[in-house]
């Protein structure tokens, strides 16, 4: 049985209702902050024992469910404690270090995410993990925590890197060291067939002009040793790094099945485990990315299924690690640029719920759109079951649909209440903006994003008043638990 103090912390925090790319982004939006309404006096008197029997009967079903929810919460915490014991046992002898993450931890339970080392209760016990060796990551408490990427988790955060005005040359490593980031996507390969049939790339300020070999063979490529070293940091931390293909302004069409297959081979040799073009690889011969993101936005889906199948064939030949194919469609259905068959065979699909007014994250159409996408990807997916991510902007300049950090949970709770089985987490455009988007409390946007997808939604968040709580003596406890208690709980 858990100590009474922890039980009280659960009750005081877990039952309170949570307050609530297109990759070219310029439109600022206003931020709206919502205040929670005070509890109704009627409910308070009911709990105090002054209500009529009919009132009590009206709440009987909720009280029964409340008991189940409390027991479920206790079981979740016990599982996390067991996971914590395993992590601590594996880190015996590892020295402590101060935090190097750029996002500060929030001091309250309702805004402090559980670190990714601890499995969320909604993650299947049979989840597959990457084979990339993982280094300990400095947490906000100063302890070193081993990180393992879980592709089947429901609370991953993926971020793009390279194309925003906030991008810095050393920003990729900073993103990967941030405990709230799980996947990084390099943007973009933006012209599939440039000089001599090789692509043109633009991954931001960490790349240098092409080498002599690249100039002679593929002048659209760049020499990126600084970025390569940061990719190694990310992968050593256990975080996948993908290369994105496309963007809003790009030349990404195929003219035949043969051309689509050929380009899959070109990518494999330039960024994957292929070795036919070693001298012109942008990241050098010893850096192999973890997959490719398909962000086609040219309204032409022809031969893309062939292209994705050819990529899968190349990936299957390398047994040393797991590779990923992801897709980034616009939220209106159907997407005009990425075929549904391709998305059903992807590992992750992060739908862009921004720059599309009818289904933006902050629109009335968001919930219905997400539900439709979930059903669309689940039906006919076959062996592959793609995880569906909520795509959003990480700052005002990302475009229409931006939601302020403190408001994210209200919108993600709409998705959690749908109880879809293929939720994967959240995608943000982009990571650099997320790091630098810090509110007046000093809390970064990436922190809010992770907390929004990570914390389990109470089934009473919109129906049960805050005054309804079991009769547990908590008079001597603070409104929120101390940092010591937080460490014990998470």
TrEMBL record:
<dbReference type="GO" id="GO:0006032">
    <property type="term" value="P:chitin catabolic process"/>
</dbReference>
<keyword id="KW-0732">Signal</keyword>
<dbReference type="GO" id="GO:0005576">
    <property type="term" value="C:extracellular region"/>
</dbReference>
<dbReference type="InterPro" id="IPR045321">
    <property type="entry name" value="Cts1-like"/>
</dbReference>
<comment type="similarity">
    <text>Belongs to the glycosyl hydrolase 18 family. Chitinase class III subfamily.</text>
</comment>
<dbReference type="InterPro" id="IPR017853">
    <property type="entry name" value="GH"/>
</dbReference>
<keyword id="KW-0326">Glycosidase</keyword>
<dbReference type="InterPro" id="IPR001579">
    <property type="entry name" value="Glyco_hydro_18_chit_AS"/>
</dbReference>
<keyword id="KW-0146">Chitin degradation</keyword>
<dbReference type="Pfam" id="PF00704">
    <property type="entry name" value="Glyco_hydro_18"/>
</dbReference>
<keyword id="KW-0147">Chitin-binding</keyword>
<dbReference type="InterPro" id="IPR050542">
    <property type="entry name" value="Glycosyl_Hydrlase18_Chitinase"/>
</dbReference>
<dbReference type="InterPro" id="IPR001223">
    <property type="entry name" value="Glyco_hydro18_cat"/>
</dbReference>
<feature type="signal peptide">
    <location>
        <begin position="1"/>
        <end position="21"/>
    </location>
</feature>
<dbReference type="GO" id="GO:0008061">
    <property type="term" value="F:chitin binding"/>
</dbReference>
<protein>
    <recommendedName>
        <fullName>chitinase</fullName>
        <ecNumber>3.2.1.14</ecNumber>
    </recommendedName>
</protein>
<dbReference type="GO" id="GO:0008843">
    <property type="term" value="F:endochitinase activity"/>
</dbReference>
<dbReference type="GO" id="GO:0000272">
    <property type="term" value="P:polysaccharide catabolic process"/>
</dbReference>
<feature type="domain" description="GH18">
    <location>
        <begin position="155"/>
        <end position="446"/>
    </location>
</feature>
<keyword id="KW-0624">Polysaccharide degradation</keyword>
<keyword id="KW-0378">Hydrolase</keyword>
<keyword id="KW-0119">Carbohydrate metabolism</keyword>
């Amino acid at each position: 049985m858990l100590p009474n103090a922890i039980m009280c912390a659960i009750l005081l925090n877990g039952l309170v209702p949570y307050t609530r790319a297109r990759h070219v982004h310029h439109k600022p939006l206003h931020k709206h902050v919502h205040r929670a309404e005070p509890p109704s006096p009627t409910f308070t008197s009911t709990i105090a024992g002054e209500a009529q029997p009919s009132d009590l009967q009206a709440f009987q079903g909720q009280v029964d469910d409340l008991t189940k929810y409390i027991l479920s919460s206790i079981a979740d915490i016990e599982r996390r404690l067991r996971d914590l014991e395993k992590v601590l046992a594996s880190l015996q002898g590892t020295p402590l270090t101060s935090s190097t993450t750029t996002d500060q931890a929030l001091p309250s339970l309702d805004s402090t995410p559980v670190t990714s080392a601890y499995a969320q209760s909604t993650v299947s016990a049979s989840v597959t993990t990457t084979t990339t060796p993982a280094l300990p990551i400095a947490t906000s408490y100063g302890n070193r925590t081993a990180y393992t990427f879980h592709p089947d988790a429901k609370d991953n955060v993926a971020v793009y890197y390279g194309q925003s005005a906030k991008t810095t040359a050393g920003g990729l490593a900073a993103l990967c060291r941030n405990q709230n980031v799980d996947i990084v996507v390099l943007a973009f390969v933006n012209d599939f067939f440039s000089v001599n049939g090789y692509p043109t790339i633009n991954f931001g300020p960490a790349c240098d002009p092409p080498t002599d070999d690249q100039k002679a063979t593929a002048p659209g490529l760049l020499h990126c040793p600084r970025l390569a070293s940061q990719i190694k940091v990310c992968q050593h931390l256990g975080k996948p790094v993908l290369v994105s293909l496309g963007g809003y302004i790009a030349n990404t069409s195929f003219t035949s099945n043969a051309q689509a297959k050929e380009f899959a081979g070109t990518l494999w040799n330039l960024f994957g485990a292929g070795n036919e073009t070693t001298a012109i690889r942008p990241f050098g011969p010893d850096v192999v990315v973890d997959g490719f993101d398909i962000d086609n936005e040219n309204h032409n889906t022809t031969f893309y299924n062939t292209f994705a199948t050819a990529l899968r064939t190349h990936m299957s030949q390398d047994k040393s690690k797991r590779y990923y194919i992801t897709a980034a469609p616009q939220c209106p259905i159907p997407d005009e640029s990425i075929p549904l068959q391709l998305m059903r065979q992807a590992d992750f699909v992060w739908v862009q719920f921004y720059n599309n007014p009818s289904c933006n994250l902050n629109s009335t159409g968001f919930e219905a759109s997400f539900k439709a996408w979930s059903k669309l990807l689940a039906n006919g997916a076959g062996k592959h079951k793609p995880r569906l991510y909520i795509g959003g902007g990480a700052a005002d300049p990302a475009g229409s649909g931006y939601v302020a950090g403190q408001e994210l949970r209200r919108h993600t709770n709409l998705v959690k209440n749908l109880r879809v089985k293929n939720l994967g987490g959240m995608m943000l455009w982009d990571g650099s903006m997320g790091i630098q988007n810090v509110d007046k409390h000093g809390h970064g946007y990436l922190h809010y994003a992770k907390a929004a997808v990570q914390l389990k939604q109470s089934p009473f968040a919109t129906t049960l008043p805050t005054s309804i709580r079991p009769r547990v003596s908590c008079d001597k406890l603070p409104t929120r638990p101390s940092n010591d208690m937080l460490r014990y709980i998470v």
